[in-house]
Amino acid sequence: MRSSFLSALMPKPSxxxxxxxxxxxxxxxxxMVAAQAGHGGAYRRLLGEMSLWxxxxxxxxxxxxxxxxxxxxxxxxxxxxxxxxxxAYPLGPWLAAIAKRKWIDQLRLLSRRPTxxxxxxxxxxxxxxxxxxxxxxxxxxxQLKPAQAQVIRLVxxxxxxxxxxxRATGLSVPAVKMNIHRGLASLTAFIxxxxxxx
Amino acid sequence: MxxxxxxxxxxxxxxxxxxxxxxxxxxxxxxxxxxxxALLLGLGLMRPDMSQMxxxxxxxxxxxxxxxxxxxxxxxxxxxxxxxxxxxxxVMVTLGLAMVLMIAGAFVTxxxxxxxxxxxxxxxxxxxxCATSIVVLSLPIMAMLSVLMHRGAPTHPQGSATASxxxxxxxxxxxxxxxxxxxxxxxxxxxxxxxxxAVTITxxxxxxxxxxx
Lengths: 198, 213
Hints:
The complex is a heterodimer of chains A (198) and B (213).
Chain A lengths: L1 H8 L12 H15 L3 H20 L4 H17 L10 H22 L12 H8 L3 H6 L4 H12 L4 H8 L3 H21 L5
Helix pairs in contact in A: 2-3, 3-4, 4-5, 5-10, 8-9, 8-10, 9-10
Chain B lengths: L1 H10 L10 H21 L7 H4 L3 H23 L7 H19 L5 H4 L3 H5 L1 H28 L5 H20 L8 H22 L7
């Protein structure tokens, strides 16, 4: 099961979502060089285009309520670390590596956040379920133990309270909490070990 | 949209940045190591019989082996400060090389050590002093690597911290090797490894703290 999972996660040539398209990054590379030299206009354009790519990247990997935070955290990280980009190399892998790190950080944050305090109106059930059912996150959740995946899907993605998830699954409240915590930790550790997840 | 406001904010009054250069970082590390070595030699702490020992297989094994190990470890650590590089490979190469060097040490053991008891050869009190000296010599290097790591963009901070600990400790061990008067590879393998492990564990625990990409 593990090996089939790994092979399923290997980047597929047609998908291209884990890294920006090479044509775009050639142009972005020039903009980043200008930004490193202090050109604000080039930087504004670059961040604008990158934020659209990041928006798509995180929409497929995080619950919808987390996407904006992740995009902004990544933009801030790109800003703080812009001096580490070396124009001798393509910009795509540099951006993708930072975005992946922020994805992991966001998942960690999600597992640490007290689940009791989630607002009831966090999400719109059906729409989000439809979005996440086709996302990378959903396919990763399928690799967890069924009980862990189910409670993460209910509480972290669809916005159920712990008590509602407990009633829906027949698990006790502490068991729901434990499954969420352990499931997100396993997910984070797995993504960290895998070179590319698509 | 919140991101638009953030982008406007980030791009306003944008200051030019000095690009990161791994070669410059390596040179800084080398300069610090050179300074520590010069300080030790200037204080007259080099082993007195170095002129006779320098051409022996044991001393060549010790100095060349540790120089090679420190070079590989430092390169691995500095490379890992780039977001696209995974530190695991550098750490594995360093550990593999350390194993090879320890095995090679068996072939350069002076004959008179072979028949001695292990405890005599290990000389625990002297060994503790050697290990402590290596740790002390490694601390400034670890501090510099910490600064370089926080200025870089490591996407695996724990791994980069481990790589930095290995780099600092092996460079510290190389510098100390000029002062160490013991001529037994077993002693070197055990006590130098103890020191390197202590520094690496400390770096692994300390360096990722307060790190935010």
